[in-house]
From TrEMBL:
GO BP: any one term: peptide transport
Organism: Polynucleobacter sphagniphilus
Domain Solute-binding protein family: from-to ranges: 106-529
Gene Ontology molecular function terms on file: peptide transmembrane transporter activity
Entry-linked CDD domains: MbnE-like (cd08497)
Pfam family, one: SBP_bac_5
Alphabetical list of SUPFAM superfamilies matching this protein: Periplasmic binding protein-like II (SSF53850)
A GO cellular component annotation in the UniProt record: outer membrane-bounded periplasmic space
InterPro entries: Peptide/Ni-bd, SBP_5, SBP_5_dom
Designated name of the protein: Microcin C transport system substrate-binding protein
Length: 622
């Protein structure tokens, strides 16, 4: 499965996980701004509703490696190469912070005042005079400009240039005032620049005053303004963060509302395990405090034993209202074998979700039915309905201009993913697949499915670990019935990520987390330019003028209705182009934890690991 890289994870936390909204549409200054209408929380609010403002502080939170990361070789999360240590996001902050119980607002963090221009072509942030970096130096407008310019340079991960392509420049107006100018009237841009990670100009400065090139920063201590510092680490094995005793927020005369109830532990320790079974047994033995589980079978059968029986360890599925996005087997469009949409559609018929859900997943999952699953932005949100007038107004001109890039099916009801539920069956689905493959020029002969040149249909499936192999084995068995041969390759996280960054794969599992308010990140995920940039999120390799046009419609939407029409139009085009074989989702977060752990009621929109790290606390045994 393709797990977010450290830079993707850091970017997702900063740009997507917290990026739940966008700027105010007036020229008045405020601590909070909202993309559509007014933010939920007024100026002067005391704390977010979803935190415990009286949560006790103290103790150590011990966590395992998130995702598949089993080692690390750098502290810099903003560059392409290497694997970043987990938890590094604890050292960085942004000008503003998103709220997890609304879809389109941010509130000042490093900034105490945000002013969006009346023409929406710029935004000014005033930095709090108390804001300081971990080395004691003040956070200044020049540091904000330096952070932006560095991330937009060739020294940082190329996704920043794609994501922030519509930002013209950062301009220092005064020591604590910075203005971002925009190329276009894009209502999302004020929030995007507000959630930009900020770091000091002195990060990487040598004793002689010279600078280490940004892309060569590895284990040089980051200089950010976040609540934690690195206390110690064992290369590739563990890393311990301690609360910065001089954290600027803790020095304020009154609590900062966007930090009340956050970061309640004095220390955060990550222990990295290379084997999932070993990690689970370590949890049962008391090696760490909480564990997020993504595999249904392990959740059902592995989290048992004496400590669960006596209440020392607990497990709970926490409901969330996150859009589920898309997860599935992605076909690399850079490979000729996958360029015919009939071939891509045919391969989808070989995945028997109902069998997998019954035999492997204990019926815990629902089928992915959209690129915006579990969201009102999905074209399937109200069932398989036809495009609305608003959607047709977008889609019809694109069909006239780019007929081959808009499948005819987008004008009908959204088709469901292939199913084997009665009256359907796997046999019938494979028969449909064979017909589609024949239309595309593939026939079974001489023991294999072959094209007109006699070449066999054969491709490689790559994954970053063995835990998905049972699913892949079931899928490839069905493909073999069609005469298709699949070579399955697994590797460790670092090697797999390198292959993903270089698009060196035929098929792999992707997970595109959904934002409640998608926008410019879609350029990096589906934009034609991103498909040519190494390390982008466009691992599929989509290069479609229609997709580009629809992403542009999304980014320029002025209200939720326009966003919904544009997103559903994009959903119809992507879904009917069959770039991904959709898998499944679960609208809960499965978390096991020690009985001493405490938590507030979860917000509407959240990721499990950041929620535990940011908002939980520990009640020490008496």
């Amino acid at each position: 499965m393709l797990i977010l890289t450290p830079i993707r994870r850091a970017t997702q936390i900063v740009l997507l996980g917290l990026l739940l909204g966008l700027g105010v549409l007036s020229a008045q200054a405020s601590q909070g701004i909202s993309q559509y209408g007014k933010p939920k929380y007024p100026d002067g609010f005391s704390h977010f509703d979803y935190v415990n403002p009286n949560a006790p502080r103290g103790g150590t939170l011990t966590l395992p490696n998130p995702g598949s990361r089993s080692s690390f070789d750098k502290f810099n999360p903003f560059t392409l190469r290497g694997v970043t240590a987990p938890g590094i996001e604890l050292m960085f902050e942004s000008l503003a912070e998103g709220s997890a119980d609304e879809v389109s607002s941010i509130y000042g963090l490093l900034a105490d005042d945000i002013q969006v221009a009346a023409d929406h072509k710029s935004v000014i942030f005033h930095i709090r005079p108390e804001a300081k970096f971990s080395d004691g130096s003040p956070v200044l407008a020049a540091d904000v400009k330096y952070s932006f310019d560095t991330l937009m340079s060739g020294l940082a991960h190329p996704r920043y240039k794609t994501t922030f392509a519509d930002v013209k420049s950062a301009v220092v107006l005064s020591p604590r005032e910075v203005r971002f100018d925009f190329k276009n009237n894009n209502s999302e841009l004020p929030i995007m620049v507000g959630t930009l990670p900020i770091f000091s100009r002195n990060w990487g400065k040598r004793p002689d005053g010279s600078m280490i090139p940004f892309d060569q920063l590895a284990f040089e201590m980051p200089i950010g303004s976040g609540p934690y510092l690195i206390e110690s680490f064992k290369a590739g094995k563990s890393i311990l963060f301690k609360r910065n005793p001089n954290y600027w927020v803790d020095q304020l005369s009154k609590p900062l509302n966007v930090r009340v109830g956050f970061y309640n532990f004095d220390r955060v320790l990550y222990k990295l395990y290379s084997d999932d079974a070993v990690r689970l047994e370590a949890f049962k033995a008391g090696e760490f405090d909480a564990l997020v589980e993504y595999r249904a079978k392990i959740w059902a059968k592995g989290y048992v034993g004496s400590k669960f029986n006596d209440g020392s360890l607990l497990k709970k599925a926490f409901t969330n209202h996150n859009g589920a996005g898309m997860q599935g087997f992605a076909m690399n469009q850079r490979r000729p074998i996958f360029q015919d949409p009939r071939v891509r559609e045919a391969l989808g018929y070989a995945l028997d979700f109902e069998w997998l859900n019954r035999q492997l997943f204990f019926d815990q999952y629902s089928r992915i039915n959209s690129y915006f699953t579990n969201s009102d932005l999905s074209a399937n949100f109200n069932g398989p309905s036809k495009p609305t007038e608003a959607e047709l107004k977008i889609l019809k001109p694109l069909k006239e201009k780019y007929p081959k890039w808009v499948p005819d099916a987008v004008f009908g009801p959204m088709p469901a993913a292939p199913s084997t539920a009665p009256p359907s069956s796997l046999r019938n689905n494979l028969r449909k697949a064979r017909e589609l493959l024949a239309q595309a020029g593939w026939q079974y002969r001489d023991g294999a499915l072959r094209n007109m040149q006699g070449e066999p249909f054969r491709f490689e499936m790559v994954e970053d670990g063995p835990f998905f192999l049972r699913v892949i084995s079931a899928y490839t068995r069905n493909l073999e019935k069609l005469g298709i041969q699949v070579d399955v390759r697994t590797s460790d996280f670092a090697l797999h990520q390198k292959r993903m960054d270089e698009y060196d794969f035929d098929m792999t599992t992707v997970r595109f987390p959904d934002s409640q308010n998608p926008g410019n990140e879609l350029w990096d995920r589906f934009g034609s330019a991103a498909a040519k940039e190494k390390g982008s999120d466009n691992v599929i390799g989509v290069q479609s003028p229609v997709v580009d046009a629809l992403v542009n419609e999304i980014t320029k939407a002025q209200n939720r209705e326009e966003l919904r029409a544009a997103a559903r139009s994009l959903d119809r085009v992507l879904w009917n182009s069959y770039y991904v074989i959709p898998q499944w989702y679960n609208p809960t977060h499965r978390i096991a934890f020690r009985k001493e752990m405490r938590y507030p009621e979860p917000p509407l929109y959240y990721s499990a690991e950041p929620w535990v790290m940011q908002n939980w606390w520990k009640e020490e045994s008496k």
